[in-house]
Amino acid sequence: MIYNSFKDIKLSALGMGNMRLPVKKDVDGNPIDRAEAQKIIDDAMSGGINYYDTAYVYHSGESEDFVGEAISKYPRESYHLATKFSIFAKEDYKGMFEEQLRNLRTDYIDFYLIHCLTDENIDKYLDCGCIEYFLEQKRLGRIKYLGFSSHASVESLERFASHHDWDFAQLQINWFDWNYGTSKAEYEVLEKKNIPVIVMEPVRGGKLASLSEDAEKILKTAHPDWSIPAWAFRFVKSLPMVKVVLSGMSNLEQLNDNLSTFSDENGLNDKDMQTLMTACEVFKKNLCVPCTACRYCCDDCPAQIDIPAVLSVYNDYKVDGGRGVLRRINDLESTGKPADCVECGLCKNHCPQNIDITTIMQEIKEKI
Predict the structure, then answer these.
(1) What is the 3-state secondary structure (H, E, C) of 147-200?
(2) Exposure b/e, 78-105, CB count within 10 A at least 16 = b
(3) Which of 80, 169, 87 is nearest to 120 (CA)?
(4) Could you tell me if 194 and 239 are in contact, meaning their C-beta atoms sit under 8 angstroms apart?
(5) Domains defined for the chain, CATH in brackets
(6) What single string gives the DSSP state of each residue in 59-128?
(7) DSSP of 189-238
């Protein structure tokens, strides 16, 4: 295990996320399979991981209690606990903090975060008094380092990051969002303010653990001995401000692969980075439809569907998944919807990109 310097301590470059622990799928509510999850914690500890991240809301509130129980058999100085205040779960930040100490079986929390900053909740967090309270708990030694996790816009992130001298911040960073999202701009905000970074979602919730066949071929040709997830971890490992990369490991196979990736300091060299960016382009091309919104397809559509708008939502769905994304089509200002498609094929005949629009409309019909 490699370690990074943070303040006056050393943190394992790989951190254990506890949001995707193994569960008992045949039991009501899918509770954590504590025996299997304990094996992962034990092997993580023996593998040198000393950063364990959880939150009040993970696993429907069970994660903190499990982590507290599972790790309490180890000396307290041998690991660092991270958890979060979630205003969307409970506004009583004082009560939640005390409950979290009990859940985690500790009298202090190493890394405490304001959880899931967004454009919608930023003012609630800034105005409710929680930050001042947690700064006081830090002064009392009940919190060692205070930070926040963000899913906000770059503008809101910069505003929140300017509140005071935060000890660290947690961002969603991966090679896909670096190229097609705002990860790079978010990272640069923290870099400018010299705020150390903890990375979440380095494989984008598992979506970068397996790619299209063409994209995987590019990466496997370059490094046959690397797994596809290893490329994602090595990418974020290459960023200088990153101190810990979190992985929500659900089984020992994932843990062992990640431990191998973090057994040396090697990230990606210039040639590797170029290879990854090439694979990234191929993956996105395979994943998404190349609509340029020229609107040649719209004029003769008998159902008057705003096809480019529908395809834009469809691409979001292909990237992020979830039927909830597709249902945004129902809110489009379009006279016709995919359900109104009569499969006439006129749209495809007019499409310069030769997109099989009719087939996509039928797929959307079936999924919404």
Answers:
(1) EEEECCCHHHHHHHHCCCCCCEEEEECCHHHHHHCCHHHHHHHHHHHCCCEEEE
(2) ebbbbbbbbbeeeeebeebbeebbebbb
(3) 87
(4) no
(5) 3-279 (3.20.20.100), 307-367 (no CATH)
(6) GGGTHHHHHHHHHTTS-GGG-EEEEEE-TTT-S-HHHHHHHHHHHTT-S-EEEEEEEEE-TTTHHHHHHS
(7) HHHHHT--EEEE-TTGGGTTSS--HHHHHHHHHH-TTS-HHHHHHHHHHT
In the chain, the N- to C-terminal Cα span, in Å, equals 45
Q: Are 262 and 232 in contact (CB under 8 A)?
A: no
Are 150 and 160 in contact, with CB atoms under 8 Å apart? yes
- % helix, strand, coil for the chain, step of 5: 45, 15, 35
Under DSSP, is residue 26 helix (H, G, I), strand (E, B) or coil?
A: coil
Q: Contact 122/150 with Cβ under 8 angstroms?
A: no
Angle, vertex CA 355, rays to CA 350 and CA 356, nearest 5:
100
| Ordered per-residue pLDDT tens for the chain, 368 residues | 999 999 999 999 999 999 999 999 888 888 999 999 999 999 999 999 999 999 999 999 999 999 999 999 999 999 999 999 999 999 999 999 999 999 999 999 999 999 999 999 999 999 999 999 999 999 999 999 999 999 999 999 999 999 999 999 999 999 999 998 899 999 999 999 999 999 999 998 888 888 889 999 999 999 999 999 999 999 999 999 999 999 999 999 999 999 999 998 888 999 999 999 999 999 988 878 878 888 889 988 999 999 999 999 998 888 777 778 888 999 999 999 999 999 999 998 888 888 999 999 999 999 87
Length in residues, the chain: 368
CA distance 188 to 170: 13
Instruction: Look up residue 148 and give its two tokens.
Output: 């926040």
Which backbone phi and psi does 189 adopt, to 5 degrees? -60, -45
Whole-model pTM: value is 0.84
Q: CA gyration radius for the chain?
A: 23
Residue 1 tokens read as: 């295990």
Question: Can you tell me the distance from the alpha carbon of 295 to that of 283, in angstroms, rounded to the nearest whole number?
Answer: 25
- d(C-alpha 272, C-alpha 221), whole Å: 11
